[in-house]
Write a structure and sequence with these properties.
With about 675 residues, the chain is of the alpha/beta class. Helices cover about 25% and strands about 20% of the residues. The chain binds calcium ion.
């Protein structure tokens, strides 16, 4: 089934001049002519060759396009160069008097601060493929201003149904790319690096101030807080996992995309040295271009292909703070990375029962801009969670009402909500899943690499030969990032009434995921081959029903996956499947070939009442249609305009996100977030 695209053009009152590519007389086309003229000049200057391509024009993302149109004079850019030309480009910019802060966060990507003429020159340079804004990323955690007292008992573990689970995440390493992590006896940090200057700098493990903002420590705490003595109520999901702290956000919680990319590539380069299994990214910026050209998204895809699971906050742009309306299309970059595990936030109301759980209003909804990917992938409790933060961190000192001080222990506990927290909880769950698979196989080095060690390959080959399996390749792979994602989605529990674009496959069900990970053994492979049951839950082999007992309730697994723009479900999802291979991009349509027998039970994502897919994207439910124009009655004069049925290479254009969502520092729009009841009558 083909992808349906939204063919709309988003215009705001402020921004009504912004027009489609090629539209006659528009600023864009003027800009384009300008750029073409500049490119002719640039080509003549830089490529004195008969082969000079005077028609070349690099793709420019929306943020830079708008900056050019608003006559900005200075730009922070990320230049994606043609393969192999990045070093030359970097040297050229190093010597350019109109360029400063020139760095190369990744091979063939150069970051720099440049003037307008240089930007236009680069746009015409044949070596340049994409010009992106080196956008500010922000952490995805919010405080709230409610007078409701903070909870002193962290109910996280119970709301996850993990109260009887003995944590075993030892030796699993999670890289937290955030604002740093404070030195603390409750957090095992394997290594710390500072990327805020553009280049990695190793930081002493005992640095008490290596998180001036306080967000990264909170994220690390939800993942791995050991919860010793008086900190017990606040223990993290995987208390024996180790943290590698990579600081990219400054003391106000913001940082440059280029530094995030540098940190991701550092993880790829040092994966074996630092034993990194999982990368947690509780940050993002608005989506400014398709995933295929977004350099931050591409960095995430590289990391997944290198065998690391990348878990990312979906964003906190689910609610229009001006109107209190839920809105769709608020996923941030790099949460739109197809192979990432993108996580939305649930308000679990502090209770273990899942029947009262709801997707938090602020949690970003899908689909993703430009590509129309269905995101988030899963949701989990990320609401009002207590985590460690430094005594003098920005968040500690500015949100004292949300703080429980532990000066004797050298830190504070801070209550934060957001998809940042939900991503952190998911990273903790992923660490436990990986360790469970390691214990099941008896191989403590099993990673998300995709290859079981040599010691098992011979045995697997023998099994394949015994049962006449011609292609043994799928059985030789271990727990890949794609497989982890499939396990998390397949065992997730859908929240009644929540749209798939709000919750993905559903709410994380850690115990169900552990049950599947336990099956990761040679004996299990043999049993599956024997019974010809290769399904993910191994129903025949184990008489397993796809359910999990949580507290007093039995919950049903979703048994479906969100695959690109398709919803896939059924009980015949293969345990060892080509789709879980490390090199494959999640959602890639090419994967579903003849070998997959569940392609016939897939369907396009069905859009619910709030969304009309195909022609218009509808914001909230108070929309009137006038001819080709949709006007949203939210008082902000937001207008959706359908331009035409023409399909161009950028199917969606996002308006002024700041105007819609009030992109402001953390906490600034918290008053607009309804303070949901916390379930005071609940025994937990
Ligand atoms: Ca609940």
């Amino acid at each position: 089934m083909s992808v349906k695209r939204i063919d709309v053009w988003f215009l705001t009152g402020m921004n009504a001049a912004l027009a489609v590519r090629g539209m006659s007389g528009s600023p864009f086309s003027r800009l384009r002519r300008h750029a073409v003229a500049a490119s002719v000049l640039a080509a003549a200057l830089m490529w004195a060759s008969p082969l000079a391509d005077t028609a070349h024009r690099a793709t420019i993302d929306r943020a830079l396009t708008q900056a050019l149109e608003s006559n900005a004079t200075n730009f922070r850019v990320l230049v994606t160069a043609h393969s192999g030309t990045g070093a030359r480009l970097q040297r050229a910019l190093d010597f350019n008097p109109h360029a400063s802060n020139v760095t190369s966060p990744s091979r063939d990507i150069v970051a720099a601060q440049i003037d307008r003429a240089t930007l236009l020159q680069l746009a015409g340079d044949r070596a340049v493929e994409v010009l992106s804004s080196d956008a500010l990323v922000q952490s995805s955690g919010v405080t709230w201003t409610s007078t409701t007292p903070v909870v002193t008992d962290n109910r996280l573990v119970r709301t996850l149904g993990m109260d009887y689970w003995v944590p075993n995440g030892k030796d699993v390493v999670v890289a937290v790319i955030d604002s740093g992590v404070v030195a603390n006896s409750n957090l095992q940090s394997a290594a710390k690096y500072d990327f805020t200057t553009g280049k990695p700098r190793a930081v002493a493990g005992g640095d008490l101030y290596f998180d001036g903002y306080g967000h990264g420590s909170h994220v690390a705490s939800l993942i791995a807080n050991m919860g010793a003595s008086s900190d017990k109520p606040y223990r993290g999901v995987a208390p024996s996992a180790s943290i590698v702290a990579l600081k990219v956000l400054d003391n106000s919680g913001a940082g440059y995309t280029s530094n995030v990319i540098a940190a991701i590539d550092f993880c790829i380069a040092n994966k074996y040295k630092l034993k990194i299994d999982i990368i947690n990214l509780s940050l993002g910026h608005p989506i400014y271009e398709p995933a295929a050209t977004d350099p931050l998204v591409q960095a995430v895809e590289r990391a997944v292909q290198a065998g690391m699971a990348v878990i990312i906050s979906a964003g906190n742009f689910g609610l229009n703070p001006a109107t209190g309306q839920i809105g769709f299309g608020g996923i941030t970059s790099p949460g739109n990375a197809p192979s990432a595990i993108s996580v939305g936030s649930v308000d679990a109301r502090g209770s273990q029962t899942m029947t009262d759980d709801a997707v938090a209003p602020y949690s970003s909804r899908g689909p993703t801009w430009y590509d129309g990917f269905a995101k988030p992938d899963v949701v989990v409790n990320g609401h009002r969670l207590m985590g460690i933060t430094g005594l003098s961190s920005y968040l500690s000192t500015h949100y004292q009402a949300s703080v429980i001080g532990k000066p004797g222990a050298g830190h504070n506990y801070l209550a934060l909500s957001g998809t940042s927290m939900a991503a952190a909880v998911t990273s903790g769950v992923a660490a436990e899943v990986l360790k469970t698979a390691r214990l099941a196989t008896g191989i403590n080095t099993l990673t998300f690499d995709g290859q079981l060690p040599d010691s098992q390959q011979g045995a697997i080959q023998k099994l394949c030969a015994k049962y006449g399996v011609a292609d043994c390749t799928p059985y030789q792979t271990g727990l890949t990032p794609n497989f982890l994602k499939a396990i998390l989605q397949y065992t997730a529990v859908p929240i009644a009434g929540a749209h798939m674009l709000e919750q993905g496959a559903g709410e994380l069900n850690p115990v169900g995921a552990f049950e599947l990970a336990k099956r990761f053994t040679l004996a299990d492979i043999e049993r599956r081959l024997q019974t010809n049951d290769l399904t993910l839950e191994g129903r025949l082999a184990f008489a397993t029903v796809p359910q999990t007992r949580i507290g007093n309730e039995t919950v049903n697994w979703s048994q479906h996956l969100v695959w690109g723009d398709h919803l896939v479900w059924g009980d015949t999802v293969h345990f060892h499947d080509a789709a879980w291979a490390t090199h494959l991009v999640w959602g890639d349509h090419l994967v579903w070939g003849d070998t997959i027998d569940w392609s016939d039970i897939t369907q396009s994502v069905v859009w619910g009442d709030h969304l009309v897919w195909g022609e218009h994207l509808v914001w909230g439910d108070r929309v009137v249609e006038q001819g080709n124009t949709l006007t949203v009655l939210n008082g902000a004069n937001v207008v959706w305009q359908k331009i035409s049925n023409n399909v161009n290479d950028q199917h969606l254009v996002w308006g002024d996100l700041k105007q819609i969502f009030g992109l402001q520092p953390l906490g600034a729009w918290a008053p607009g977030v309804p303070d949901l009841p916390y379930g005071p009558s609940d025994p937990y």
